[in-house]
Amino acid sequence: MTLGNNIRRLREEKKMTQQMLADQLDVSFQAVSSWEREEYNPDLDKLIRMAEIFDVSLSNLVEEKKPHFDTSKAIYDWEHMRTFVKTSAKSHGMTQTLKALDYAVMAHSEQNRKNSQIPYIYHPLNLACHCLAMGIYNDEVVAAYLLHDVIEDCGKTAKELPVSERVRELVVLMSHEKDDSRRDEIMKEYFRKLSEDSDAALIKCLDRCNNMTTMSWGLSRERIYRTIKETEKYILPLLDVIKKVPEYNDAAWLLKYQMLSMLDIYKRLM
Fold first, then answer.
1. What per-residue confidence (pLDDT) applies to 28?
2. Is 68 contained in some domain?
3. CA-to-CA distance for 7 and 35, rounded, in angstroms?
4. The domain that contains 224 carries what CATH number?
5. In which domain, by residue range, is 13 found?
6. Are residues 83 and 203 in the same domain?
7. What are the pLDDT digits (tens) for 235-266?
8. 186-193: long-range pairs with CB below 8 Å, 24+
9. What's the pTM value of the predicted model, to 2 decimals?
10. Which of 237, 152, 163, 177 is nearest to 201 (CA)?
């Protein structure tokens, strides 16, 4: 697909007319029309501005669009994950995890992951599965993985959670106020508290790893950029906190490798 077709496709995806795009670029709609018909090519400054308007990389705007690869739905099979977590919890006597499991499924029952039809419960279940797969059977940590978003995203309170005080404490640590006008201030205090608790630091690092694997289709380009910056500033330093617990040393290495690999990939694609 050529540049002109890309401009037209992206404009239509944004539900913009040629005139609407022209107004944002400070050109005539005839200029936009000529670009789409490939009679003329836009100047570099206009290309950069269109990439911002369409929320795509410059390469995505100017390069020929390649066919989409088929993606697997199997990795989002949350019911299979629930069975794995329940079986593992029963075999290791993890009572807090069993209590948290059913509550998390109920709390997230009406939610999907951003920009998808994937049930939201896939996310906390995925974290719990990864934790268990890394050989971490800390009952309260796995329970907190399952419940880490229910206060922030489901309107639940800590007192409502059918788990121990320690699990509630971890879930509270994982929750923060959402206010973009004060985000820097909120994030600074949020990560300061996380850095004082190795269990909470572990939960947050794995949470970020999982969120990074889906942000290519779940987040806008602006949010992806923000996530990259915040991961480098706040998340990577938490690995030093995790390493202080011998039980978490292997997990810290795996998390660091995965995060750095994904950061490198996203930077190259941006």
1. 95
2. no
3. 8
4. 1.10.3210.10
5. 3-62
6. yes
7. 999 999 999 999 999 999 999 999 999 999 98
8. 187/230, 187/234, 191/234, 191/238
9. 0.78
10. 237
> How does residue 67 score in pLDDT terms, banded at 50, 70 and 90?
low
Mean pLDDT, residues 178-207 taken together: 96
The predicted pLDDT at position 269 comes to: 78
> What type of residue sits at position 193?
K
Point out the domain boundary residue: 34, 62, 90.
62
Does 54 lie in the same domain as 148? no
In contact, 145 and 203? CB cutoff 8 Å: yes
Q: What is the 3-state secondary structure (H, E, C) of the chain?
A: CCHHHHHHHHHHHCCCCHHHHHHHHCCCHHHHHHHHCCCCCCCHHHHHHHHHHHCCCHHHHHCCCCCCCCCCCHHHCHHHHHHHHHHHHHHCCCHHHHHHHHHHHHHCCCCECCCCCCECCHHHHHHHHHHHHCCCCCHHHHHHHHHCCHHHHHCCCHHHCCCCHHHHHHHHHCCCCCCHHHHHHHHHHHHHHHCCCHHHHHHHHHHHHHHHHHHHHHCCHHHHHHHHHHHHHHHHHHHHHHCCCHHHHHHHHHHHHHHHHHHHHHHHHC
- The mean-pLDDT minimum among 55-69, 147-161, 188-202 falls in 55-69
| Per-residue pLDDT at 83 | 96
